[in-house]
Amino acid sequence: MLNAKIYLIFCLLVPFYSLAQTVPPDTAKIVVTADSSAKTDSIARLKKEEAAKAAPVASSDPSGFHYKITADGTVTAGNVNRALIQVGGSFDWAVSRLFRFASSPTFAYGQQNGQLNEREFLADFRATLFHERRFYYLGFGATEVSNLRKIRNRLTGGAGVGYKLVSRKNAYLSVTNVLLYEYTDFITNTAEVPDVNVLRNSTRLLGEFQWDDGRYSINQTVFLQPALNQPNFRWNGSLSFQMRLTALVSIRTMVQNSYESVVAVGRKNNDFRWTTGLVLEVK
């Protein structure tokens, strides 16, 4: 009888024991695991944010198109009727961190006592590889028309390297060296002065400096271009000082000089220009 009672109690306890073994895993463990995962994610996110703050600020979009257009001129009337108009542009397109394209076309028109003296047009195109680095590569092409120098058309193109000597927010200075080909078609030709077909080495020094949040700026450019296969030397340079009056209007004075050892008949080797006036600048 006693054995029967023990057996009955054993049979009643077995289902409860089995039920206890099939209870879902401890929910406390699940909560702990979820909290640990959340904490891990939060810590990782905080580390990323701290790293982003510590890293140098970089543009989320390295590409972009920027432009600047300037125009100035002078007009006098009376004993001497004189008009001079100059228009320039600066276009820059950073396709990516690898490639950049730029152009700085200029146009000048000058007339004195009803006679056309100057009708100068220059359009250039520059492609830069690794433009964000201190040492970079570039390709260059340009076309030029000059009534002043009796040039019907001048075509140049080449490639070379560049190096940034200074690259800061308010100061930029670079030097480039390019091997280029030049073809110059003069309006007037003689046997002594034929059209120019020459290979040159071109060195350029470019500087841009500004202060007082860009209110004052100085820009300078110098080109030295000796020929490699014949006696022919060219150099030109410009230096300008600009003071911004408003967001659109500035005062600018600029000195330009150009020298060519081989010129068209009746033209001088050196040309010098000094202009001062108001500049309408659109960015």
Annotation keywords:
single chain, 283 residues, alpha+beta, Porin, 2 domains, 13-stranded antiparallel beta sheet, 13 strands, globular, disordered N terminus
Structure description:
With 283 residues, the chain is of the alpha+beta class. The chain has 2 domains: 2-54; 64-280, Porin. It has 2 helices and 13 strands; from the N terminus they run ααβββββββββββββ. Strands 1, 2, 3, 4, 5, 6, 7, 8, 9, 10, 11, 12 and 13 form a 13-stranded antiparallel beta sheet that branches. Strand 11 (233-244) and strand 12 form a beta hairpin. The longest helix is centred in the first third of the chain and has 28 residues, at 27-54. The protein is globular. The termini are far apart. Residues 1-10, 12-40 and 50-62 have low confidence and may be disordered.
Task: Describe the secondary structure blueprint for this structure.
Blueprint: H1 2-21, H2 27-54, E1 64-76, E2 82-94, E3 99-103, E4 106-112, E5 115-129, E6 135-146, E7 151-167, E8 171-186, E9 196-211, E10 216-226, E11 233-244, E12 249-260, E13 270-280
Antiparallel strand pairs: 1-2, 2-3, 2-4, 3-5, 4-5, 5-6, 6-7, 7-8, 8-9, 9-10, 10-11, 11-12, 12-13
Gyration radius over CA: 36 Å
CATH topology of the largest domain: Porin
Question: What oligomeric state best describes the polypeptide chains here?
Answer: single chain
Say which CATH homologous superfamily of the largest domain is assigned.
monomeric porin ompg
Topology, number of strands: 13
CATH-defined architecture of the largest domain? Beta Barrel
> Order of SSEs, N→C?
HHEEEEEEEEEEEEE
Strand content: over 45%
Span between N and C termini? 107 Å
Spatial shape: globular
Mean pLDDT: 81
Please identify the structural class as seen in this structure: alpha+beta
Give the total of domains. Answer: 2
Q: What's the helix count?
A: 2
Query: What is the CATH class designation of the largest domain?
Result: Mainly Beta
Approximate helicity band:
10-25%
Major beta sheet summary: 13 strands, antiparallel
Unreliable parts: 1-10, 12-40, 50-62
